[in-house]
Design brief:
The chain is an all-alpha fold. The chain is built from 13 helices and no strands.
């Protein structure tokens, strides 16, 4: 097969995945909610009926939660990053339930929040009290909104005659299409590299990011957070606030996968991959000053630019996670 045919085939495969990503983000949640709202009705504040329903689905919720966590752990143990990525994606999946405006949190598409039911039941009190407590828990991680809040602040000062919701809506669509574009380009590059049987894919979009597919997922999922918190006000989806804590957990799992994959790439390809590391960015192309600031804890603790051993990866990710949680408490 010649080069032109390989490029065309790569673009076709990538286009299919990208269109599916956009459809699942913008249209599919609304369609699913219209279908599911008749099956899983809105109990509102009728907690006697709601608790009967919750009791009936409790075994399913615990099974789903255990299976999801198991996927993440097994993926790391067996060195199958696809399994861990799938588990982290499923953990974040209930975020789509925020596309529905309801009172009872498991109404319609909100039924996918059965994955979070075991977490809710960790909190004491009646169900209304549990829901309030878990909404406070989900707000841990609010520090991730700081970059976007800064953009909103700049917008309000530069364009005082334009409503803020216009900026929010435009930014949401921009970030979704940006993530889709990165996803398309990275998939096309990856498919082409695999067709050509290249050991290290270091061209095109991979020249600027060693993990562009993970990057596209992080940007895409961050866009959903923006949608949940700023476009819907008050937040839709019942008693829950927007769940930044789950985005934070999912993101750190993704970062852990990327760091672990780098460890394996160095093990398999040695100097060739290290040279590639030195020429490209880990995830997001950033100015050197910001990059050095982010890497400072790693350099301070491990005296190196990137954690290499598994214990180093777990330690540094835990430190960064706790830093963001602490900032969130005061934010």
């Amino acid at each position: 097969m010649n080069t032109k045919s390989l490029i065309l085939l790569s673009m076709v495969f990538s286009a299919i995945f990208t269109i599916a990503l956009l459809y699942s983000t913008i249209e599919l949640p609304h369609i699913l909610n219209k279908f599911l709202v008749d099956i899983f009705p809105d109990y509102g504040i009728q907690w006697n009926k709601a608790e009967k329903f919750i009791n009936s689905i409790r075994p399913i919720s615990y099974a789903c939660f255990i299976a999801t966590i198991s996927l993440i752990i097994i993926g790391f143990i067996l060195k199958k990053s696809q399994l861990s990525f799938l588990g982290s994606f499923v953990l974040y999946l209930p975020t789509f339930s925020y596309f529905a405006s309801v009172m009872f949190f498991l109404t319609g598409i909100g039924i996918i929040r059965i994955l979070w039911l075991p977490i809710i039941e960790l909190f004491p009190g009646s169900w209304p009290e549990k829901i309030y407590a878990v909404s406070q828990f989900l707000e841990l991680g609010d520090s991730i909104y700081m970059p976007y809040d800064a953009l909103r602040f700049i917008f309000t000062n530069l364009a005082r005659n334009l409503p803020l919701h216009i900026f929010d809506d435009a930014f949401f669509h921009l970030i979704i299409y940006l993530s889709a574009s990165i996803f398309f380009l990275s998939c096309a590059s990856w498919f082409y590299g695999k067709f050509k049987k290249l050991k290290i894919i270091d061209f095109f979009v991979y020249k600027y990011s060693r993990h562009p597919q993970y990057l596209s997922f992080l940007i895409w999922s961050y866009g959903l957070l923006i949608y949940d918190k700023y476009i819907f006000y008050p937040p839709k989806g019942g008693y829950f606030a927007s769940p930044p804590i789950f985005w934070l957990i999912t993101s750190f799992i993704i970062l852990g996968l990327a760091l672990y994959e780098e460890k394996e790439m160095i093990k398999n390809y040695g100097k060739a991959y290290i040279e590639y590391q030195n020429k490209s960015f880990f995830m997001l192309p950033l100015p050197k000053t910001i990059s050095n600031l982010i890497l400072f804890p790693i350099k301070l603790i491990f005296k190196k630019d990137y954690p290499e051993e598994t214990i180093e990866i777990l330690s540094i990710l835990t430190i960064y996670f706790l830093i963001l949680i602490i900032i969130s408490i005061f934010y």
